[in-house]
Amino acid sequence: MKKSIKLLAIFAGIIAFLIPQACSDVDKKDGELEQERLEVGRALLEMQASDVAELIPYYTDDVEYHDPIVDINGIQDMTAFLNQLILGASPNLSTIVEDETLMDNTYTATWIMSGTFNGVPYQAKGISIFKFMPNSSQVYYQRDYYTEGDIMATTPGLDEAIMGFRTFYRCAVDPTFECPLPPPDEVSMVKSQMSSQDQISSDQLVVGRQLVEIHAGNWVNVLPFLETDYEYHDPIVDIYGPDTMAMFLGRLFAGSSELYTVIDEETIGDDIYMATWTMSGEFNGAAFNAPGMSIVKFVEGTTQTYYSRDYYTEGDVMLGVPGLSEVVTGFRDYYRSAVDPNYVSP
């Protein structure tokens, strides 16, 4: 009996030694995969002409890619697309990653892209989402969000149209913009008292979602969560301070009372909330439907937000404006003809 107990004790000791060792190996492998995914996501975003052949294998054979204009399916078309875009239309393309997060199998990052497109210089801000295969560093899905207006703004023949739309939009919603057009009616603003709360990530998720799904019926509810140095950006407008944000939202929903946003996917980590979404409704009578992505940054450990940016293409809004829709469809035809291997220009 004593011998059996002694053997059992020895066996238990071996198990106690092996289990932590096994867990340590698993943690190490998970950490290595996480680091590799961060490096792959960053490399795919910062891809330059000399990197294309080396980085293509990080996409799966059935990879799916989307941007505001192009939809790609399969590695063959993805290879052709990247060759036509980076080796052909934009050989000096340069992308710099700003913020990045990796949650489970999803990598997201904001970036600044610059270069030339068919000889026309441009600079654009954007955000991307990559989805990895389970336990792999191969990407099966990528979507880039940016506004084609940043390219149109430097394209002769299209620059006046995009600048005209941006002026029209800022006149309608930006309280700091010196509008050259007749001023819109002033909208009465409601200012909420700022409040502080003990917060965790789940609370940040709720607040981030509320900021993205904001609409005419609830926009005043987000004001208490804006820090005194809060800033907001979209493809056209830059807003600084909660009071100016309140004026902006009042004007926006005065002209877009039926504007609604539905979240598709969302993540929260390291006090940063990101979400993809679809926005639909009307802007000053022009109907539109637009996909987009947002980033919201919180003061560490709180639900007070100091920064948010919405990424979408203003071309989706311009499509509903008489006289501008032709400009957008013309540019998209021009762009797809240059980079989309499956596109046949009408």
TrEMBL record:
Residues 47-132, 214-301 form the SnoaL-like domain. Pfam families: SnoaL_2. InterPro entries: NTF2-like_dom_sf (IPR032710), SnoaL-like (IPR037401). This is SnoaL-like domain-containing protein. Residues 1-22 form the signal peptide. Keywords: Signal. The keyword Isomerase does not apply. The keyword Signal applies. It comes from Draconibacterium sediminis.
